[in-house]
UniProtKB/TrEMBL annotation:
Keywords: Oxidoreductase
Keyword Cytoplasm found: no
PROSITE patterns for the chain: FAD_PCMH
Molecular-function GO term, any one: FAD binding
Domain of life from the UniProt record: Bacteria
Name of this protein: Xanthine dehydrogenase FAD-binding subunit
InterPro entries named in the record: CO_DH_flav_C, CO_DH_flav_C_dom_sf, Diverse_Substr_Oxidored, FAD-bd_PCMH, FAD-bd_PCMH-like_sf, FAD-bd_PCMH_sub1, FAD-bd_PCMH_sub2, Mopterin_DH_FAD-bd
Organism of this sequence: Rhodococcus rhodnii LMG 5362
Domain FAD-binding PCMH-type: 1-222
Length: 328
């Protein structure tokens, strides 16, 4: 048995102060990722700081017409929330495509952002892994790479971020509100997760004693149509091989607004800036434009042996998703 101490936080300040005072502590929310890692021996905190009773589960409108989602809001509740379904359908679809109903009923918004990679080598403590034990090597290089990165990887790690929700949030220009010892700060979702570089063990820019308290979505883009498409090995309870969150608005046959992010292809949700710029620069919304946008984004892809197919799959999935929203 692993010896553990437990503390139920009374408020946000108590949670942050406890984490600051304890160098080997971890926040506990839904536990759908952390509890797995405890059992697998991937992590071994001395103290669990339970934040499940904090009043952070509300979903409210912001003053500018956006939406504030509390960090403790459960995935199933966010997906079912009327304003999310009506105004941010790509987020609802992303949440409903993730995990299983049981897990969506338990997993939290903040915990979803903090979940770690599902790379099989990371989760197997008998294999070398730079993300789990820095400096030991990357077993995926030369190994099974079907689910691994084709964008933004490094020689130290080619794992991918597993979150569906985070891909939609990145496309929607959402921001993460966090509280730490120095007070509150706001982090754009596109900047929240890190690429591996030389430090693949560091997943996010969040301080270890900072607590996510909410995610805020900007007001919907007038006239924009968005959706989320996920390609996976089975119809449910499977991680994305490739996914696309896309929202597009048009006027006079031209694209006037484009927000796109890819999942299953990088260490973080991949904001497709090159594809967006190509769409906005085009003089129509035909198939040639979509092919050009996909080609522009995937020009930077660097697959490894075993996942070369993902470059073409990502391009085709991006084109199909854009075709769907443009036809709506």
């Amino acid at each position: 048995m692993m010896p553990l101490r437990y503390h139920r936080a009374s408020d946000v300040d108590d949670a942050v102060a406890t984490m600051t005072a304890e160098p080997n502590a971890a926040f506990l929310a839904g536990g759908t990722n952390l509890v797995d890692h405890l059992g697998l021996g991937i992590t071994a905190p001395d103290l669990l700081v339970d934040v499940t009773r904090l009043p952070l589960g509300e979903i409210d409108r912001t003053g500018d017409g956006g939406l504030r989602i509390g960090a403790m809001a459960r995935g199933a509740d966010v997906a079912a929330y009327e304003d999310v379904r009506r105004e941010y359908p790509m987020l609802a679809r992303a949440l409903l495509s993730a995990a299983s109903p049981q897990l969506r009923n338990l997993a939290t918004t903040g915990g979803n952002l903090m979940q770690r990679t599902r790379c099989g080598y990371f989760q197997d403590s008998s294999t070398p892994c730079n993300k789990r034990e820095p400096g030991t090597g990357c077993s995926a290089l030369g190994g099974f790479t079907r689910y691994h990165a084709i964008l933004g990887a490094s020689r130290h790690c080619i794992a991918t971020n597993p979150s569906d929700m985070a891909v939609a949030l990145a496309a929607l220009d959402a921001v993460v509100i966090v509280v730490g010892p120095d007070g509150q700060r706001t982090i754009p979702v596109v900047d929240f997760h890190r690429l591996p570089g030389d430090e693949p063990a560091v997943d996010t820019v969040l301080g270890r004693d900072e607590l996510i308290v909410a995610v805020e979505l900007p007001p919907p883009v007038p006239g924009a149509v968005g959706t989320y498409r996920k390609v996976r090995d089975r119809a449910s309870y499977a991680f994305a091989i490739v996914s696309v969150a896309a929202e597009v608005a048009t006027a006079g046959g031209r694209v006037t607004s484009a927000r796109i992010a890819l999942g299953g292809v990088a260490h973080k949700p991949w904001r497709a800036r090159a594809a967006e710029e190509f769409l906005l620069a085009g003089d129509d919304s035909g198939d040639d434009l979509l092919r050009g946008a996909a080609a522009a984004e995937l020009a930077a892809a660097h697959p490894v042996p075993g996942n070369e197919f993902k470059v073409d799959l990502a391009a085709r999935t991006l084109r199909a998703t854009l075709r769907e929203v443009l036809a709506s």
